[in-house]
Write a structure and sequence with these properties.
about 20% strand; alpha/beta; 2 domains; 7-stranded mixed sheet; binds nicotinamide-adenine-dinucleotide; about 550 residues; Aldehyde Dehydrogenase, Chain A, domain 2; Aldehyde Dehydrogenase, Chain A, domain 1
Length: about 550
């Protein structure tokens, strides 16, 4: 098609409120009831075909183990081989398709998700991952719509970036997709991340094998269905849930493996990097490795901090989605003077948090994702009960009789290196260290050096000079840094997301920086009137 085509200017998808009595609440409630009452059978989707492998696993609600939401069919090595073959076939046309046609698929997927599929993807996220309606809405609906729309806009900018041409020639950059397939491995905690890890490389013309987390299969399957409904050709993205080790073993040694798009824990990412490095001589190209991983996200308050703003940020930052956000506040440094003013209200508000089934809209928190997370978090709480140097100020309880429930917990650590100040817990546990007001400088140093991660962090200060000083002192301590705000809730197109140090490659999901990893540029030089004699003019005389 001739024409300098422009992508519609993206705007962030408005967040729906689901207020009592609203039509949007009634519609979502109806879908929740349907999905809970009629279990979904999730197949693998390979080359556009639904494959029922027979390796069947149950999908249950974290907040109610007895609620079986469906089953999924796990992929084995033979299905992985089939998916690689399907992706290779799809690559022939998809990698050559005009980028505006690929963008049209994702723009349409965004509109389908914002419209007719919104309730299904939100409801499956609420039920399968135990998110409240607000947490599902900002993730599964709004953030994924934003990823798909904004990525088209960023791709437009990349394709438009062209080199200069000297007289007599025409220089061009062609942004080719990678030669081979991308392996997208997504975490349980954000439905949107699943749709972005597979979607971003595919938008640039790549083909993808997508392995969702086994605890997010239901919502991720519906995301795959949205992409199909939007016209994604068969084989461009192949959906292969199942045993992560077996699937990885079956594909990582393939010569066509061209890139890893991973979000998950640090240990798993480091394993991937080592495996890929070990096999480097066998690949057709050097695989791109993009990984966003763990965090030990902090809030540091200056003596000038507003106690009410600080308290609200601590509660929302630490306890929303049960602290299972990579960006969740999990350690806080509060000066004695501010602590004296805010301690009682912080403890009282934490104790008052409503936790339970997220389909009851009065709850602020649901359950943690599975038994493994429950056991790990209960262990931290049980140790804190007996340990020296730490006190439980609120919460500390756990109950697995109906679902995997961990109480929102405040720990007060006298030892700033107590284990819960240093390690990623991934649960609703906030550890606070109270420091003498005159130790601001030392506290910034402590914050910077306590953990190997550098994902998100926040400082609270009403004193501009102190805020500036903290921004400088903690320059490398967080890839997403907040001043007088909670360290969670990054929005696509507004705060590109990712961390450095052990937290990942910091390729900033939902930005052009990420998309650049999925292309391999070809520089083209065309000469209009080429020379016909190899001799240069200076050779005309002695
Ligand atoms: P996880 O590492 O357990 O799993 C992530 C993915 O890796 C899943 O698909 C899983 O099946 C797969 N996986 C696990 N072990 C594997 C193995 N041995 N071989 C191959 N694949 C394997 O992480 P999770 O519990 O799903 O998610 C939570 C983690 O993700 C936390 O550490 C959190 O900080 C991180 N996270 C980071 C970001 C970010 O942007 N930095 C965003 C979300 C989550």
């Amino acid at each position: 098609m001739n024409g300098s085509i422009r992508i519609p200017a993206p705007i962030n998808e408005p967040v729906r409120g689901y207020a009592p009595g609203s039509a949007e609440k009634a519609s979502l409630k109806a879908r929740l009831a349907e999905l809970a009452a009629s279990p979904t059978e999730v197949p693998c989707i390979i080359g556009g075909e639904e494959i029922r492998t027979g390796d069947v696993h149950e999908i249950v609600a974290p907040h109610d183990h007895s609620l079986v939401l469906g089953t999924y069919h796990g992929a084995g090595p033979e299905h992985v081989a089939r998916a690689i073959e399907a992706s290779r076939e799809a690559w022939e046309t998809w990698s050559r398709m005009a980028w505006v046609d690929r963008a049209a698929v994702f723009l349409r997927a965004a509109d389908l998700l914002a419209g007719p599929w919104r309730d299904t993807v939100n409801a499956s996220t609420m039920l399968g991952q135990s998110k409240t309606v607000h947490q599902a809405e900002i993730d599964a609906a709004c953030e994924l719509v934003d990823f798909w729309r904004f990525n088209c806009h960023f791709a437009e900018g990349i394709y438009a970036d062209q080199p200069r041409s000297a007289p007599g020639m025409w220089n061009r950059s062609e942004y080719r997709p990678l030669e081979g397939f991308i392996y997208a491995v997504s975490p349980f905690n954000f439905t949107s991340i699943g749709g972005n890890l597979c979607g971003a490389p595919a938008l640039l013309g790549n083909v993808v094998l997508w392995k969702p987390s086994h605890t997010a299969v239901l919502s991720n399957y519906f995301v795959m269905r949205v992409l199909e409904a939007a016209g994604l050709p068969p084989g461009v993205i192949n959906f292969i849930p199942g045993d992560s080790v077996a699937i990885t073993d079956a594909l990582l040694d393939h010569p066509d493996f061209a890139g890893l798009h991973f979000t998950g824990s640090t240990g798993v990412f480091q394993m991937f990097w080592q495996r890929i490095g070990g096999g480097i001589a066998n690949y057709r190209s050097y695989p791109r490795i993009v990984g966003e991983t763990g965090g030990k996200d902090f809030i540091v308050a200056h003596p000038s901090a507003d106690p009410d703003a600080l308290r609200t940020a601590m509660i929302r930052g630490a306890f929303e989605y049960q602290g299972q956000k990579c960006s969740a506040a999990s350690r806080a440094y509060v000066p004695e003077s501010v602590w004296a003013v805010m301690k009682d209200s912080l403890v009282a508000e934490t104790k008052g948090i409503a936790m339970g089934d997220p389909t009851d809209f009065r709850n602020f928190m649901g359950a943690v994702i599975d038994e493994k997370a429950f056991r790990k978090l209960s262990g931290y709480l049980d140790r804190a009960r007996d340990a020296d140097g730490v006190e439980i100020l609120a919460g500390g309880g756990h109950d697995d009789s109906t679902g995997w429930f961990i109480e929102p917990t405040l720990l007060l650590a006298h030892d700033p290196k107590y284990e819960t100040m240093c390690e990623e817990l991934f649960g609703p546990i906030l550890t606070i260290h109270v420091y003498p007001d005159d130790q601001w400088e030392q506290t910034l140093e402590l914050c910077d050096t306590t953990s190997p991660y550098a994902l998100t962090g926040a400082i609270f200060s009403e004193d501009r000079a102190a805020a500036r000083h903290a921004m400088d002192a903690l320059r490398h301590a967080a890839g997403n840094f907040y001043v007088n705000d909670k360290p969670t809730g990054a929005v696509v197109g507004q705060q590109p997301f990712g961390g450095s140090r052990a937290s990942g490659t910091n390729d900033k999901a939902g930005s052009a920086m990420n998309l650049l990893r999925w292309i391999s540029a070809r520089s083209l030089k065309e000469t209009f009137d080429p020379p016909t004699d190899y001799r240069y003019p200076f050779m005309g005389e002695k």
